[in-house]
Amino acid sequence: MADDEDVSMCQFRGQVLLVFNGASQCGNTPQYKPLQELYAKYAPQGFSALGFPCNQFGAQEPGSGADISTFCSNEYGIKFPLFAKIDVNGPGIHPVYQWLKAQPLPETDPKGDISWNFEKFLVGRDGKVARRFAPGTQPDAPEVVSAIEAELQKPAPKL
Predict the structure, then answer these.
(1) What distance lies between CA 51 and its chain's CA centroid?
(2) What is the band of 2 on the pLDDT scale with cuts at 50, 70, 90?
(3) Residue numbers annotated as active site
(4) Distance (Å, rounded) from C-alpha 69 to C-alpha 53?
(5) Which CATH topology does 27-153 take?
(6) Mean pLDDT of the residues in the chain
(7) DSSP the chain
(8) How many CA atoms lie within 13 A of 47 on its CB side?
């Protein structure tokens, strides 16, 4: 986990990303398991999950970066990148989430502020948001998996 270290999103250029805000004391916390399974299955094809812990919803992520990292590793065997705790709504919103929420989306996808923990954004190889999934949508739901697979089939942009 990158606690106080800035990480350039450029290192993920050309990959398919499932970006989500997580919490370790939430009813949706078990979603870490299928997120790790997706990562293990599709990472060789250029996929990564990116977890951004957030304490804005019911104070369900109160721990330090070290606490969160240890929990995710011990309970779910997480190997994908987890970042420092951030705000996903409001005046302190992290720039990544400011950008994600401003992107055009399919008509059926959620819009506006993040509604709860484990809301997910699928970013294609071209760096554009392809889909946004509600917090209750399981990471291994058919609509998520098919969207990931469709994005993985697209060629990486030429630099």
Answers:
(1) 5
(2) very low
(3) 26
(4) 10
(5) Glutaredoxin (3.40.30)
(6) 94
(7) -BSS----GGGGTTSEEEEEEE-TTSTTGGGHHHHHHHHHHHGGGTEEEEEEE--TTTT---S-HHHHHHHHHHHH---S-BB---BSSSTTB-HHHHHHHHS---TTS--SS--STT-EEEE-TTS-EEEEE-TTS-TTSHHHHHHHHHHHHSPPPP-
(8) 25
The answer to whether 32 touches 1, Cβ cutoff 8 Å, is no
- CA–CA gap between residue 124 and residue 13 (Å, rounded): 9
Q: Is residue 139 within 8 Å of residue 35, measured between CB atoms?
A: yes
Distances (CA, A) of 136 to 17, 29, 31, 59: 19, 11, 9, 18
Q: Is residue 3 very low, low, confident or very high in pLDDT (cuts 50, 70, 90)?
A: low
- State both tokens at 77: 């065997």
> Are 51 and 17 spatial neighbours (Cβ–Cβ below 8 Å)?
no
